[in-house]
Design goal:
19% of the residues lie in helices and 41% in strands. It has helices spanning 2-6, 23-26, 57-64, 89-102, 120-135, 163-176, 196-206, 260-273, 522-544; strands spanning 9-14, 17-22, 33-34, 45-51, 73-77, 82-88, 110-114, 146-151, 156-161, 185-190, 228-231, 239-248, 253-258, 279-303, 313-314, 322-323, 340-346, 350-367, 370-374, 379-394, 405-423, 428-440, 451-463, 468-484, 499-519. A hairpin with a 4-residue loop joins strand 8 and strand 9 (156-161).
Length: 565
């Protein structure tokens, strides 16, 4: 082999036959392909496939190429990150040993690079774009793989990868974080959820600002706050500069102008404040639970009036007065009216009426309010009337023909519910509640209007979806009346025929049932809206299917189906 190699030839084994071919053509022939685990010594021409794990295979080609004979071949594949070497078995085996020494994990963990001027989020986005543009559609090699992450809290870049790669990216980061030549920069930040005008006031107070220039120019459609001097971090100078914050209400955006470092800090605060707030659906039932009893027992005497044909008359609760002679037959029959009514005939001139009445009143649901509001935001619902109350009047006592007049003030009378929910840890809700039920008293009018009012003002804490009851406004009214004929009603035992007595008691308790339900996202809001929507739609469909005969056909409108799909 050494003799023929001196003359530029080599032996290639193929199908059990050894062929002598020029060395220049040997690598193009069907030479054996060996993996690193199957390498062997010798002068046979072989093709070695050497995988590279930690460094780029393309970077090893210029390092290993000078060590190979002129007639050998070496190439790198970027997709699989392997080296392909065609040479004698001994030379290929030596190259495998060299690659094993060079292919080592030389990364040193994660580097944390704190930025002074630039925004960590913007720098990380730029580096990701640069990395994707550089690699294009080619899969990354292990040696070139680099990971970036932005820590907005400390305004730092987290960098992971090989040492050589990290050094290159460190230089890029330093260039991006260089102090800008201009003294100020300006940023326009469109807000997604918060209100621009409210947020500017919060920023001025939260950043510990001081008014440095109260004569700033006004914004396009929002107010301009004075220059904000940010407090310095520990170890820093006494002031980092002045930042001007302007709210543009037309576009709901905030304009931040000032030194780059201070603007970056303000933008970080903006990102944390401009978040979607949760909502709370407060469902309530306002009920008046009253228990009233009335008992009446006595004897009423009437004389017969032949001209009207009335034997006796009685007035029952909720009924109108009318003749009851028709209720009695000629044979002195008994008739049962509202309550219990008994009558009898004696000589055709007098009638006796004994009445026993007992009535009970239970629960009256006054309102079922329901309202949705943002977390920590006040909400109010009013169901009632706007009633005018006379607050003053003018009457001219002279002979001049001036017209008298009255001054009035309108007030809401009805059911009011004012609530402010606050979502706490563990899905509990603290609610500040003001509940009022008012009405105009019967028999009052003009300047003498009297209102009946029941109100609750309290703060409660309840779990999400649980029901809490507020009550205790109890009114207790007891009355006793007695009617009798003078002298005759005072006769023992027999006097009971000439008198009647009435006792009544009325107790009222205002009960308010509330249930808060937290809504954190769009799906939750749509689910609740769908339930109410389908309830109304079902009621409309049932009304149209009412089998009751009507003169005109009933084809009322029905809400469309599937708008929440």
């Amino acid at each position: 082999m050494s003799i023929i190699k001196v003359h530029g030839f080599t032996a290639v084994a193929k199908n059990g036959i050894t062929t002598i071919v020029p060395e220049m053509l040997a690598k193009q022939d069907a030479t054996p392909t060996l993996e690193p685990g199957s390498m062997r010594r010798g002068e046979d021409i072989v093709t070695g496939v050497i995988p590279v794990h930690f460094v780029s295979a393309a970077e090893l080609v210029p390092v290993l190429r000078p060590l190979l004979p002129q007639d050998s071949h070496m190439a790198a594949t970027a997709g699989t990150n392997v080296l392909i070497v065609a040479d004698s078995a001994s030379n290929v085996d030596r190259r495998v040993e060299i690659v094993a020494r060079l292919d080592s994990d030389n990364s040193s963990g994660i580097d944390v690079i704190r930025l002074l001027n630039a925004s960590a989020r913007e720098v990380a986005t730029t580096l990701e774009t640069l990395s994707s543009k550089t690699l294009g559609s080619t899969p990354p090699t292990p040696g070139a793989t680099t990971a970036f992450a932005a820590d907005e809290r400390t305004n730092s870049i987290l960098l992971a990868g090989a040492v050589a790669t990290k050094l290159r990216y460190r230089a890029i980061i330093a260039s991006l974080d260089a102090s800008q030549s201009e003294s100020e920069t300006i940023k326009v930040v469109p807000l997604h959820y918060a209100n621009a005008k409210d947020l500017t006031a919060v920023l001025q107070e939260a950043l510990g600002s001081q008014a440095a220039d109260t004569n700033g120019a006004e914004g396009a459609s929002g107010g301009t706050l004075p220059n904000v001097r940010l407090a310095s971090p520990a170890g820093g100078p006494s002031a980092l500069g002045a930042v001007r914050i302007t709210a543009d209400e037309a576009t709901n955006a905030i304009i931040v102008q000032g030194p780059p470092r201070d603007v970056t800090r303000v933008l970080g605060v903006l990102t944390q404040l401009d978040v979607r707030r949760a909502q709370v659906l407060v469902e309530g039932i306002v009920a008046e639970v009253s228990g009233s009893t009335s008992d009446e027992l006595g004897v009423q005497w009437r004389t017969n009036v032949p001209a009207q044909g009335i034997v006796a008359s009685a007035v029952f609760p909720g009924k109108t007065a009318g003749p009851i002679a028709d209720s009695f037959t000629a044979n002195d029959a008994v008739s049962f009216l509202t309550g219990l009514s008994l009558g009898y005939i004696s000589g055709g001139d007098l009638r006796g009426l004994i009445r026993a009445l007992s009535s009970d009143t239970l629960t009256n649901v006054l309102s079922t309010p329901s309202l949705m509001t943002l977390d920590n935001a006040e909400a109010e619902i009013v169901v009632g009337q706007n009633v005018p109350f006379v607050t003053g009047q003018f009457t001219n006592s002279d002979t001049t023909p001036d017209n008298p007049f009255q001054t009035i003030q309108r007030q809401d009378v009805g059911i009011k519910l004012h609530v402010k929910p606050q979502i706490n840890e563990g899905d509990t809700v603290t609610m500040d509640i003001e509940q009022e039920v008012s009405s105009v008293a019967e028999g009052s009018s003009g300047a003498d209007l009297i209102t009946n009012k029941r109100a609750i003002k309290t703060s409660v804490q309840v779990d999400n979806g649980s029901i809490i009851v507020l009550g205790g406004l109890i009114g207790d009214d007891a009355r006793a009346n007695r009617d009798k004929i003078p002298f005759l009603g005072d006769i023992p035992l027999l006097g009971n025929l000439f008198k009647s007595s009435r006792r009544s008691a009325n107790k009222t308790n205002l009960m308010v049932f509330l249930r808060p339900q937290i809504v954190r996202n769009r799906d939750g809001a749509n689910a609740l809206s769908k339930i109410r929507y389908e309830g109304i739609r079902t009621g409309q469909q049932q009304q149209n299917r009412d089998p009751t005969e009507k003169i005109l056909p009933n084809h009322g409108p029905v809400l469309p189906e599937g708008i929440f799909e």
